[in-house]
Design goal:
This protein is α/β, with parallel strands linked by helices. The structure holds zinc ion.
């Protein structure tokens, strides 16, 4: 307790009541006042938002956890129910472990995630608090430290394993679903006055970070969230922004200095003139940079009808997310041919984005050797995906077949023969249609329609992440192979 009072006095002397000293940080102090504070080594834990935050869904913390931390957390979270993540910038430990464990339980109870930002450092009692996050992540530069504790002149390992002193920690880890081995490992890792920085292997062993949702799924979920309003043409700016900033982040090349390529079309229902926007960029090929493969998917869906959002998680947030992941793959692994990545708009209103593309191609049409199209690829109860287009363009079939054999999916061919009356003919039902009309070989990946097709229930919950990931893996292997071993017409 004495030690705590001394620390508090030090902290009080450190408080500088001026926002001018540290203008970007607005501290919510332990004393319920807004004060600015210069960041020093051993200050007590302060919770704050950054002025640059627009959403204020991430709450920051810096400093040592102490007797008032539980009150502070309850207070700040009560006032800010929008908070989903606690970002621990620098939390070196706790000077009140009893309070720390209860405060941490409060974090878990409120289903808050924890995160250690770039250059962040969390150790000792701070590590215990970090483990309270429902989802726990960190920037790759972050450090996580563990060590033993001491009481009086005894150290933790002097107490028998079944002693009460250990129990509160062990109970805590059980509650947080952290293997209790973690506790004994930490005690041995470093003495109480030293610190051990966890290795990536140790972090994995003790479930310190929660498993990452692959980005493919995160992107699909985002595109299919209510926030994106069903991506109806004319009202799908958010989706455009996401696709553009993704293209920007992987440094795709632009046509005419922009990713946006807007067009006008006539609405078949109202006959009114409307606008759509294709978002596209490309990766320059290594050996055949003047020959192009177009990888496309429509990002628009039905939008909001009678106040109900049609999220189109499968149709076609799935194809759009796949398009982005493939763009990244090829921006990292330069292809032989140049590859254009095109997110088409206004598909649902009559394939207008792809029609515009082939009428106003960014490169000569005769240099486009192949088009890949993805439309609805994230669910099928029979684990079956259709590859459409090898009937009119049989030269690609052996290559696709060879890779299909290695897939965990049931890969079927069909929907591309106008004489096969047992199946719908899909050569003109998605963005492959305009390419097919121009005689450009094209391959579409799609599953059979499902009960939620073009219904407001085409939601992320009804998709199948495993199936989706397998489809994208198959698609990537097929494009990789065709790009390398482009078959000549037989
Ligand atoms: Zn579609």
């Amino acid at each position: 307790m004495k030690k705590y009072i001394v620390r508090l006095l030090i902290v009080l002397t450190l408080i500088v009541v001026t926002t001018l000293v540290f203008p970007e940080i607005l501290f919510l102090s332990a004393f319920g006042q807004k004060i600015a504070m210069k960041v020093e080594g051993d200050q007590v834990a302060q919770f704050y938002f950054k002025k640059s935050q627009s959403l204020k869904d991430t709450l920051y913390v810096k400093g040592v956890i102490y007797s008032n931390t539980l009150n502070d957390i309850q207070d700040v979270l009560d006032k800010n129910p929008q908070v989903t993540t606690l970002a621990m910038e620098e939390v070196a430990g706790s000077i009140d472990d009893e309070i720390n464990l209860v405060a941490s339980q409060e974090i878990r109870k409120r289903k808050i995630n924890t995160y250690i930002p770039k250059g962040g450092m969390v150790a000792s009692g701070g590590t215990d608090m970090f483990l309270a996050g429902v989802e726990r992540n960190a920037h790759h530069t972050a450090k996580l430290g563990v060590h033993s504790w001491s009481g009086g002149d005894q150290v933790a390992l002097d107490f028998p394993a079944d002693q009460e002193e250990h129990k509160k920690y062990l109970d805590y880890y059980v509650e947080m679903q952290i293997p209790t081995d973690f506790y004994w490992y930490a005690l041995k890792a470093a003495s109480a006055d030293d610190i051990h920085w966890m290795t990536p292997e140790e972090i994995t062993t003790y479930n310190v970070f929660t498993p990452q949702t692959p980005e493919l799924l995160t992107l699909q979920e985002k595109l299919a969230s209510d926030e994106f309003g069903g991506r109806g043409t004319g009202n799908n700016r958010k989706a455009q922004k996401l696709i553009k900033s993704f293209f920007e982040s992987i440094a795709l090349e632009k046509f005419e200095n922009t990713f946006d390529h807007s067009f006008e079309f006539s609405d078949e229902m109202t006959l009114e003139s409307r606008n759509g926007t294709n978002i596209m960029g490309y990766v320059k090929g290594k050996s055949h940079s003047d020959k192009y493969i177009v990888v496309g998917a429509h990002y628009d869906h039905l939008g909001i009808i009678d106040g109900i959002i049609f999220n189109g998680a499968d149709d076609n947030a799935s194809g759009t997310a796949a398009l982005l992941m493939l763009a990244r793959h090829f921006s990292k692994n330069q292809p032989e041919h140049s590859i254009i990545f095109a997110a088409f708009d206004a598909e649902e209103l009559g394939l207008h984005g792809s029609k515009y593309f082939v009428e106003h191609p960014p490169v000569p049409l005769e240099d486009i050797k192949l088009n890949f199209n993805f439309d609805m690829i994230s669910r099928n109860p029979k684990n079956e995906i259709y590859v459409v287009g090898t009937k009119p363009y049989p030269v690609f079939r052996p290559l696709v077949e060879a890779l299909a054999k290695t897939s965990r999916l049931k890969v079927s061919f069909g929907h591309d023969d106008p004489n096969d009356t047992s199946k719908d003919y899909w050569m003109f039902s998605s963005d492959n249609g305009p390419f097919h009309e121009k005689g450009i070989p094209n391959i579409t990946f799609s599953e059979e329609d499902h009960p939620d097709y073009h219904k407001s229930t085409d939601d992320i919950e009804n998709t199948d992440p495993e199936f989706f990931q397998n489809v994208v893996e198959l698609i990537q292997s097929i494009i990789d192979k065709i790009d390398k071993e482009f078959p000549n017409k037989s």
